[in-house]
Amino acid sequence: VHQSKLDFFCKLGYGKQDICKVLENLGQEALEDDVLKELIRMGSKPQALESQAQPSPLKLVARGSCSTSLGSKWLGEDESDSSDHLRPIVIDGSNVAMSHGNKEVFSCWGIQLAVDWFRERGHTYIKVFVPLWRKEPPRQDSPIADQHILEVLEKQSILVYTPSRKVKGKRVVCYDDRYIVKVAYEKDGVIVSNDHYRDLQNENPEWKWFIEQRLLMYSFVSNRFMPPDDPLGRHGPTLSNFLSKQPALPEPKWQPCPYGKKCTYGNKCKFYHPERPHQAQLSVADELRAKIKVPLSLGKEEEQRNRSP
């Protein structure tokens, strides 16, 4: 009888020590309801409830990693992009590779140079789009150099292949430029290419504005990837502001007046005059009036002194 009651209350989740104490006090022939009331009166709780009441111990997680797979899924690259101060980068892999190969060879080393340049600047979101048929062995009409770089970038989740297939011996290729512009537009990033995408500009007016404002052109100088310091022209933003989500305000730069000392605009002149840094910029007429008033005032003071007794 003792063992059966012990097993019954153990299944309910109570500890053996508490059950034995109650059975000793009430006797072995006590009813189950009386034993249960006594356990509740003693304040004993089932072990399942105790485990729920106690907070789970904190787990030490390595810095920069997520504690669960679900957290890593939802707090992945999208969350890091929103907290990053640099814009996402979308590279036209075919355009960059052909430019580095002088439009004769698909040079994968040019793609690597572009990716390394943005990595050194601190960009975390970098995607390169290349057609899938570039994984095929090179042919005479489409030579490829350093093809192993594509495999390395694909393992790093940087390279993305646009789909293509063969139908009755003919290759059917999807338009990779549309992938590039669409991803860059959705991510509010920057397109790295020397192509103007005029056909896509005509398709969508929003894409037209985006391509005009977010297209970063480049040049290769002795195996060196070099984008321009003024991507949108002389009067546009600098390269650092162009690649930043929150561009810094430029410092005011005073342009010297092209007329120099011969300028007749005076205080209305919008340019800088180095010959009068500590003087108020007055017009020529005001300067002449100021020079004339000084001697007249001095002459009146002398006259008043002579008249005074």
Automatic annotation (TrEMBL):
Pfam families according to UniProt: RNase_Zc3h12a, UBA_6
Example GO molecular function: mRNA binding
Domain of life per record: Eukaryota
Membrane spanning stretches: none
Gene Ontology cellular-component annotations: cytoplasmic ribonucleoprotein granule; nucleus
Cofactor(s) listed: Mg(2+)
All copies of domain C3H1-type, residue ranges: 251-276
Family the entry assigns: Belongs to the ZC3H12 family.
Protein name: ZC12D ribonuclease
